[in-house]
Design brief:
- The complex is a heterodimer of chains A (113) and B (111).
- Chain A has 113 residues and is an all-beta fold.
- In chain A, 0% of the residues lie in helices and 53% in strands.
- Chain A has no helices and 11 strands.
- Chain A has strands at 4-7, 10-14, 19-25, 31-37, 44-49, 55-58, 61-65, 71-76, 85-92, 102-103, 107-112.
- In chain A, β4 (31-37) and β5 (44-49) form a beta hairpin.
- The radius of gyration of chain B is 13 Å and the shape is globular.
- Chain B has 111 residues and is mainly β.
- Chain B is built from no helices and 11 strands.
- The chains are: A mainly beta (113), B mainly beta (111).
- The A-B interface holds A 1, 6, 33, 35, 40-45, 48, 88, 90, 92, 97-101, 103-106 and B 4, 31, 35, 40-45, 48, 50, 56, 58-59, 90, 92, 94, 96-97, 99-105.
Amino acid sequence: GQQLNQSPQSMFIQEGEDVSMNCTSSSIFNTWLWYKQDPGEGPVLLIALYKAGELTSNGRLTAQFGITRKDSFLNISASIPSDVGIYFCAGRNSGGSNYKLTFGKGTLLTVNP
Amino acid sequence: NAGVTQTPKFQVLKTGQSMTLQCAQDMNHNSMYWYRQDPGMGLRLIYYSASEGTTDKGEVPNGYNVSRLNKREFSLRLESAAPSQTSVYFCASSFSAGELFFGEGSRLTVL
């Protein structure tokens, strides 16, 4: 099956620092999604990307759809304690059943006040 | 708005027991999904239903059955629970192949 490599697995940062995480795939995707999961909750959609090269922001979050269509990046600027959680990338390709999203294994973010 | 509602939120079973996880969405979405989340494994698709009346296997369907009861409801059944099915289960829904909206999860422990 398809695999997404998400890195890093975990990050420990100080409040105010910027954060970068990324996902790479062996397959071409036509959609990239970034989710955040708070402890004890379900994942919540942060940003959706639909075009190669697309750069989209949502407040302090910025995500990009890689030009090769095999990768995506999420940046968080000026981190705050409530940014703590697990961040997941997810991709969908145009082949086969396009109802299936493939998820990365997540990046656990810890922010020290 | 409730969004995606899952019940129960917590359940403890003994090996061999059966149970059904219920999921309902009020967003008029066509597609519904069941995922499991295990430490270090991310989210893995168990089954999905692209539209009312259809269901398809995902990545890890063994040991599970599903029923798309109507457009709103999609249930996941464990006929004979095993310790390997200890996990957190998430239901999700979407408009066709669009963005997924998740429930809060059901934490299942099989002893």
